[in-house]
Amino acid sequence: MSQADAAQILKTHALRRSLTERREVDLSPKSSMLMIKPVGAACNLRCHYCYYLPVMGIYDGNAQRMREETLEATLAGYLPESNKTVTLSWQGGEPTLAGLDWFKRMIELVDKHRRPDQRVVHCLQTNGTLLDDEWCAFLRQHEFLIGISLDGLASDHNHYRVTTDGSGSYAQVMRGLELLRKHGVEHNILMVLNNKNVVHPKEVWRELMRIEARWVQFIPAVEWLSPDDAERVNRHDGDWHAAPADLGDWKGWHTASFSPTPEQYGRFLCEVFDLWFEKHRYEVSVRFFDSVLNTLVMGRASECIYSHSCAGQVTIEHDGTVFGCDHYVQPEWRLGHVHGGAARTVPLTINSSVPEQERESAPIGGRWMSGLDRARATEFADRKLDLGEPCASCDWFQLCHGGCPKHRPARGELPGPTVLCDGYRTFYPHAMPRLQWIANFLKQGQMPPEQVPAELLPSTKKTAPRKQRKKRK
């Protein structure tokens, strides 16, 4: 047996251990970030690819603003025992529908329950259409980091991100973006990659540079249709019809027609990476590239979808129900409730708000995280390990860990890696020499020089067309 063969066998065994290693989930405040949904799935837009709008169906098609006692119970049971620096993520739906007064009260409650030496960082993900000067002054005063959803070019954005009457929302979003700039509010751009914008990466990147984006996150719109998901198709006026069968058929499940193909996704990442590396690597942060660098430098990804398991964050719905991830807000994955007690067992509907007597009996400041269902949380986290042999022998497994379960066949109900696997397998070998070059400097606490070794530069030479010889007369 050659040394290369032996090394491959050892590597395969190590990956298999990584695939099967089960770890009990730590649900303590020090190890879990909070994503809070002030109004649940309620939103003033009707984006065709929205993954969270179906949550409205769980709550009988209604939505409520989070009650103050639920908000306070959440903060009081988390902040005192959490880390010195804490990040609270406020998402939706559209969280600004809760109203500015609700957020002002939230700041008061945070100040009431945080430790004197504790710093709380607020992140707010919004479509930006409801922002005004008063909102932006508040966000600036309390140093919020804003994630604003923008799908690139106006024509691409307006195709899927529409208002309740079907109109495009690009102009409203850009108005909100200008207000954030006017007030000096830090913000990043969240771009959902779909079958429209993924096909022209260069134009998308030029648009991002035109609006002076400095933090960018690309989110592939991978959504699934089950064999009998006709209701979901009808709800979105046809945009949820199944993609052609040649893009994948997993026991009757299909990706939605707006989902990018693996080839499109890989090509997009490669072309954007080339543009970023050539001109913008010192001034623009792309979350996916940062996550790969974090793995190379620190040994762990900075994004959950590329991590070993689905753990480290909990989602709190507007009624106080706790889940392991906002992509799996489903009754079977409920972990508990911030008011504790029997509230964890009541039916998950709009009527599942904790009864008045239970709210009174659950003292503010109770350690609700200690009462969460750890066995269910561990079961949920371990779903990420349900992979097959291809992952055990893949050179890139330690970078992707099979991807997000939601991106796997049938939303993770069938074993196997992300359906975007071929896209990652296109990107990693294309970008890795340059990412590793950057990582080598970062490990030494240095920034890489502007001068890049020639062998790392992509070839730009093209074979010149041959001149046609003149025919002799």
From TrEMBL:
The record ties this protein, via InterPro entries, to: Aldolase_TIM, rSAM, rSAM_sf, Sulphatase_maturase_rSAM
Q: List each copy of the Radical SAM core domain by range.
A: 26-261
The reply on keyword Ribonucleoprotein is: no
Query: Which E.C. number(s) belong to this protein?
Result: 1.1.99.-
Q: Where is the composition biased (Basic residues)?
A: 463-473
Matching Gene3D superfamilies, A to Z?
A: Aldolase class I (3.20.20.70)
Q: Which family does it belong to?
A: Belongs to the radical SAM superfamily. Anaerobic sulfatase-maturating enzyme family.
Q: Where is this region: Disordered?
A: 449-473
A Pfam entry, by short name: Radical_SAM
What is the protein name for this chain?
Anaerobic sulfatase-maturating enzyme
The organism's taxonomy opens as: Bacteria, Pseudomonadati, Planctomycetota, Phycisphaerae, Phycisphaerales
